[in-house]
Amino acid sequence: MPPGSPTPRASSPRVSPPPVTSDGLRDGDPFVLATLVAAHGGDVLVYAREVAPPDEALRMAAAVFVDLRLAVLSGDDLAEDVDAALLSATRRVAARQAENPFRPGEHRRPTTRTTVCDRFPRLLTAWADHRLPRADAVRLREHVVDCPDCDALNVAFDRAETAYRDGPPAELAPEETGALVAAMALASPG
Ligand SMILES: [Zn+2]
Q1: How much is the pTM?
Q2: Which of 32, 35, 98, 168 could form a disulfide with 17 if both were Cys (CB 3.0 to 4.6 A apart)?
Q3: Residue 124 Cα, ligand 1 centroid: separation in angstroms?
């Protein structure tokens, strides 16, 4: 070996994780489910911690993985982009969560809750998914100026998106990993 050339790396005894395929997800292959959770469970959990009460975050994260698996079971082919599908699922579940009486911080509820307020979580996540027409996006921006409730929600979702995209993923404890994998394995339509 010529001097200065890199030392060949010893071959790793680790088995590489299986690719996350639609078939693997549909079949509930435990290795595939575990691979997906290991890769993204921490991202989903940091998102959930921004938009859900602390004791609900893990449950929300589990709902995201259930939602994704149900999408596959109903025929969606996610092989193309599992990452994008997971982020969409995260937004869908977060919107559902926020439609529950959700009050981030101590913001006062508006005296009159408008239909925009009721639809706000879904509009917000549609916007994040680039599915919201421009006119609606403008209306959304105008609405938060006068509605502290929706403004707080807007801020929480914005933090969640940033944390998911740029922040370090949450470290999953073994029991959290187990909870997410089990929820996904047990997901069944209806
Ligand atoms: Zn509002």
Answers
A1: 0.82
A2: 35
A3: 11
